[in-house]
Specification:
32% strand, 183 residues, 8 strands, 8-stranded mixed sheet, Alpha-Beta Plaits, alpha+beta, 37% helix, DUF2652 domain-containing protein
Length: 183
């Protein structure tokens, strides 16, 4: 059996407040808003990451990379966050509604494989499961953040990596950067 096992980055942007949003928004309006926000994240990515899946309010991005760049990834996250917020402002104004969603990111690194079923490509491995588990972490003090795991930080080229006292260090997991602090 041939396998496609490689090292790479897993990036999951996820909406905070999504469940409440779905329950409090008309079906057509909610679907339109979510589609616009997810499309914005995909467009801003500029094909740096590949898309594995879109899962409701989250996108499972990946990039095979044996020497990931913290600088490149943090730059993409900043662009995604800014575009997401701008799109929420535009949609709120055009639809005359309040959209109470924020964005969090999980950035993880490790070994995973990919297999194909029909026209679909699926990622598989411990790294994928770990990244999904981190979405429900309870560690962040603010709803908008990027959690860079220790696995990512240890394997990335850390040029221009400015960690300061305002960031939340969790030895067992990694570092949480609140968006105001991402450089």
């Amino acid at each position: 059996m041939k396998t496609n096992i490689q090292e790479g980055i897993i990036l999951i942007p996820d909406f905070s407040g999504f469940t409440e949003f779905v329950f409090n928004t008309k079906l057509y309006t909610g679907e339109y808003i979510v589609r616009e926000l997810l499309s914005t994240l995909i467009d801003v990515n500029e094909r740096y990451f590949e898309i594995s899946e879109i899962e409701g309010d989250a996108i499972l991005f990946y990039r095979y990379d044996q020497q990931p760049s913290y600088h490149n990834v943090s730059g993409i996250l900043r662009k995604m966050r800014n575009s997401f917020n701008k799109k929420i402002e535009e949609l709120s104004k055009s639809l005359s509604t309040t959209i109470d969603l924020s964005l969090k990111f999980i950035v993880h690194y490790g070994t995973f494989s990919q297999y194909k079923i029909g026209n679909f490509r699926k990622l598989y491995g411990k790294t994928i499961v770990e990244a999904h588990q981190l979405l429900k972490n309870g560690l962040a003090e603010q709803p908008s953040y990027a959690l860079y795991t220790n696995a990512f930080l240890e394997n990335s080229r850390k040029q221009n990596m400015n960690i300061n006292e305002e960031e939340l260090h969790k030895e067992e997991v990694g570092v949480i950067h609140y968006f105001e602090n991402i450089n």
